[in-house]
Amino acid sequence: MAKLSDLIIGHPEVDTFTALELLVAHAGESGEMFLEFDVKPDYKDTPKKWEWRLEAVFAAGLKYV
């Protein structure tokens, strides 16, 4: 299981929601089965429906990006 907080903390170079989407896509491609939304991303470009976007990116993997 991939935790959103672990992805964010483990990659301090990620500073936009768009970059986070790519990171989440890679997690989905790497074989992770579940993504846990344990924190809300605190980026200026984080959309209101951020959970839906990250879930779609995680499920589609790099095909989404």
Report on this model:
This protein is mostly helical and 65 residues long. It is 48% helix and 6% strand. It has one domain (2-63).
Keywords:
65 residues, 48% helix, two-stranded parallel sheet, mainly alpha
Set out the fold topology.
Layout: E1 2-3, H1 4-10, H2 17-29, E2 35-36, H3 50-60
Parallel strand pairs: 1-2
Helix pairs in contact: 2-3
Quick recap:
The chain has 65 residues and is mainly α. The chain has helices at 4-10, 17-29, 50-60, and strands at residues 2-3, 35-36.
- Termini distance? 21 Å
User: How many beta-strand runs?
Assistant: 2
What's the Cα radius of gyration? 10 Å
- The overall pLDDT, averaged over residues, is 94
Largest sheet: spatial strand order:
1-2
What is the string of helix and strand elements?
EHHEH
Please give the count of helices.
Answer: 3
- Work out the helicity level: 40-55%
Question: What number of structural domains do the residues give?
Answer: 1
User: What structural class do the secondary elements suggest?
Assistant: mainly alpha
Approximately what portion of the residues adopt beta-strand conformation?
5-15%
